[in-house]
Structures are given as structure tokens and as C-alpha cells.
Amino acid sequence: MSSDKQTKHRRAVHKRIPTRRRRVLRVVALCAGAAVLIGGAGASWAYWKLNANIRTVDVSAELSKPSAYAKGAMNILVLGSDSRSGANGKLAGGATDGTARSDTAMVVHVNEAHTAATVVSIPRDTLVDRPACGSTGAARGVMFNSAFEVGGASCAIKTVESMTGLDMNHYVEIDFSGFAKLIDALGGADVTTTVDINDTQSGLHLKAGTHHLGGDQALAFVRTRHGVGDGSDLGRIELQQEMVKSILKQVENLNLFGDPTKLYSIADAATGAITTDSSLGSVNSLLSFAQGLKGIKSTDITAVTMPNAAAPSDPNRLVALEPQATELWAALKADKPVPGSVVKLQQKNPADS
Questions:
Q1: Which residues pair with 128 in a beta bridge?
Q2: How many other β-carbons are positioned within 10 Å of the β-carbon of residue 153?
Q3: What is the pLDDT of residues 312-331, one digit of tens each?
Q4: How far apart are CA 247 and CA 182, in angstroms?
Q5: d(CA 54, CA 280)
Q6: What whole-number distance in Å separates Cα of residue 229 and Cα of residue 259?
Q7: Distance (Å, rounded) from C-alpha 221 to C-alpha 206?
Q8: Which residues lie closer than 8 Å to 49 by C-beta, 6 or more apart?
Q9: Residues in the chain where the model's pLDDT stays below 70
Q10: Closest to 82 measured CA to CA, from 180, 198, 177, 156
Q11: Spatial separation of the C-alpha atoms in residues 108 and 170, rounded to whole Å
């Protein structure tokens, strides 16, 4: 075969390589890059440092078949803690009294094929029936975010499972300081607002337009509510969902394989920012978990807020709106898309006029 024919043959073979296989090759390349990083000078220290960063909480009794490997459909409870301890106090302000509630709560459902995910935000002011947690008895009609304050991660998981009928497979928690550091390590995040935002409480001041935010500003963006929209927590949830997609886009655009220093910087920030269930509490476990979710891009994520309505007992509190809330949880349990009845109820992003 002539050299020209050989070249054409190789090109034809390359074109016939399935898209899925090419994705696998990229995953292998990324793993190889990580191996080179770990295998370089100072590798033992770097690996130890990343492992030491990770904080874990033993919630194995509450989780359904916890596994470090992402296989099959799964549900992950992601909580943002409003703790003011340590560096959090300087960033968020407020009283440092040693207590913490779940400032943000998201149930992330990953479909069985690991090609898409649904993120459901649960408003913190939702009134729920909280199950008994440790020595604390069950309570009816209490705020959702009080579960974390009463019994930590375990109580939050039990409460979410009770109200949704879904089994949680993993737990991830992040605080204010960790979130800001992670955004900085990623190189910032882009957000767009079509209205001016001026919130003296969160310290966020943005003119209408697209902005590249550093860690502190990004934290203010996901916490702001008084400077935009109707000032409700529901509006803030929409901003948080916009930020989640922005972070994923930023990760997709990074050339981590070509920049091992950047890769380590992000890994250092990420492992130092989160608290996980014990089955994810090592670099190897997190790497296996992340690789299993690698096929999900920002465009494959559907973000919604749990259908809700003003509580009859208190207009400043919320309750789950039925039957739509039950329809949403049932769809996720059956590994189906978000029902149209739920999509129709979604509130508009207050930063998008």
C-alpha cells in the first residue's frame, strides 16, 4: 500500500472510532495526567495533602448502599452550611454562635446511564415533618433547615428521605469559605444579569451585564436576595442554580490535562472545601466518583425548585405544593425527566428581566 493510501486509511479508521470510545480515550488521558502528577517529585506529600484535606462524616446508617463508585442511578444530597465559624465569619458576617443550618439544599439525581442530572433545590423555609434524630424527637411543621442544626448531616438526610421518598446515596457539604476558595481556584465564574443588583447585606453590587466573579463576589451572588427580585429565598435559589451551571461550564473549559499545576491547585481547593460521607473520603474514591460523572455536561443538567406555596399558617414560610411535588419525586424515583407540570411552576430568575 502506498504512503498516501496508508495515510488515507489511517484517517478513515480514525473517523470510524465511535464517539463513546473517543470519550473513553480522553478519560484515560486525564487519568494518565493525574498519574504523572502524583508520580512526580513531591508526589507522596501532594497525595497525603489532598487526602488530609478531605473531611468526612459517618452517615452510613442513613445512606442507601453507599459506594465510592458511580454506578447506576443515584441521589446525592448537597448542603451549603451557613456556619460562621473560622473564616466563614469574615466572609458572611452574622453571629458566630457555634450553630449552623443548611443555607442551601439540593438533591442531585443522576440518571442510570450517567448522561444527565436533575438538581432540585429545597427552599430552606419549607415547613416539614422532621423525623426523630438521635435524642431529639420528631417534630411537625418545622423549618427544613433546622434539621441540620438539630442533628447535623444524618438528620438532614433522614428529613430529605422522609419528605421525598428517595434514598440518598451520597452526601456532600460545603461552607462559605470553601465555596469562595473553590471559585478562586477555578479562575472565577461568569454570570449574567439584565438588571442592576445592589445588596448592602451581601455586599454585592453589579451593573446589568455579564461579569466574571472571583470567590468572594461569587459567594455574595449565591447569597444575595435583598438587592434583586422580590427579596425572597426563592429568587436566591434561581441565582444559585445559575452559578452551578456557570461552575460546570468553567470546569469544562479548563485544560487541566495540559496544566498539572492548575490541576493540583483545583484539587487542593476542592478537597479542602467539602465534607463528604465516609465512602467518598479519599482521593481515590473521589476520583472514581468523578470519573463516573464525567459524561454529564452543563447542558445535560435540569435545575428546578421543589414546587411550593405559602404556608397557610405563616405567609413567610412555605409548604410543598401538591400534587406537583409528589409528581416530581416520583419521576426521579422512576429515573424519568422532570414532569411538565413542575417545569411550568418554575420561578423566573430575578437577574433575568
A1: 142
A2: 24
A3: 999 999 999 999 999 999 99
A4: 10
A5: 9
A6: 40
A7: 9
A8: 268
A9: 1-44, 66-70, 82-102, 256-258, 353
A10: 177
A11: 10
Q: Could you read off the pLDDT of 105-162 as tens digits, one per residue?
A: 999 999 999 999 999 999 999 999 999 998 899 999 999 999 999 999 999 999 999 9
Q: Which of 246, 193, 197 is nearest to 220 (CA)?
A: 197
Provide long-range contacts, Cβ within 8 A and 24+ apart, for 308-315.
308/123, 308/126, 308/234, 311/127, 313/127, 313/141, 314/127
Interval 49-71: pLDDT, tens? 889 999 999 999 899 875 555 67
Sheet of strand 55-57, all strands in order from the earlier edge strand to the far edge = 55-57, 274-277, 170-174, 74-81, 102-110, 117-121, 301-305
Report the length, in residues, of the chain.
353
> What single string gives the DSSP state of each residue in 147-192?
HHHHHHHHHHHHHHHHHH-PPP-EEEEE-HHHHHHHHHHHT-EEEE
Residue 151 CB contacts under 8 Å (≥ 6 apart), including other chains: 133, 134, 136, 158
Q: Where are the beta strands (DSSP E) in 207-278?
A: 209-213, 274-277
C-alpha cell at 129: 415533618
List the grid coordinates of 227.
438587592
Give me the phi and psi of 202, to 5 degrees please. -90, -15
- Say if CB 108 and CB 296 are below 8 A apart: no
C-alpha cell, 312: 397557610
Contacts 24+ apart (CB under 8 A), 253-257: 254/186, 254/187, 256/30, 256/33, 257/29, 257/30, 257/33
- Is the model's pTM score more than 0.85? no
**Cβ of 343: how many Cβ atoms within 10 Å?**
13
What cell numbers appear for 146 in the block?
A: 433546622
